[in-house]
TrEMBL record:
The gene is rlpA. It is an enzyme of class 4 (lyase). The keyword Thylakoid does not apply. It comes from the Bacteria. Lytic transglycosylase with a strong preference for naked glycan strands that lack stem peptides. InterPro entries: RlpA, RlpA-like_DPBB, RlpA-like_sf, RplA. CDD domains: DPBB_RlpA-like. Belongs to the RlpA family. Gene3D superfamilies: RlpA-like domain. Keywords: Cell wall biogenesis/degradation, Lipoprotein, Lyase, Signal. Pfam families: DPBB_1. Residues 1-27 form the signal peptide. This is Endolytic peptidoglycan transglycosylase RlpA. It comes from Rhizobium aquaticum. Coiled coil: none annotated.
């Protein structure tokens, strides 16, 4: 019975886009993104380096790698989650200035992005 339930649950989660075909959990999402260029410590304990390709996400594990795509221009970049945030309604990521530059969104300050996990820690 437990095997049947697990198989059914995995199938349902696959249909919702929450697990891969191998049953591994992954995340994806779309929403607003902004960027920041501080030199303070991040929630993971490392010092923020604005030129590195990093991001803040509310709940994904530190070290998770995300492919982020700017929906306005199609630019993509892979970033590593090392901080928590954003804490602004409608935003899903806060990106380092380096990542924002790769997405061509520095001058606008924000962009609509979609992201998906490419490697979990």
């Amino acid at each position: 019975m437990a095997f049947r339930f697990r198989t059914l649950a995995t199938g349902l989660l696959m249909g919702l886009g929450l697990v891969s075909a191998t049953g591994e959990a992954y995340a994806r999402g779309c929403g607003g993104a902004s960027w920041y260029a501080a030199h303070s410590k991040t929630a993971s304990g490392e010092r923020m380096n604005p030129s590195r390709l990093t991001a803040a996400h509310r709940s994904l594990a530190f070290g998770t790698k995300l492919k982020v795509t700017n929906m306005r221009n199609g630019s993509s970049v892979v970033v590593r989650v090392n901080d928590r945030g954003p804490f602004v309604r409608g935003r899903v990521l806060d990106l380092s200035k380096g990542a924002a530059s790769s997405l061509n969104m520095v001058s606008s300050g924000t962009a609509k992005v979609c992201y998906e996990v490419v490697a979990e820690r």
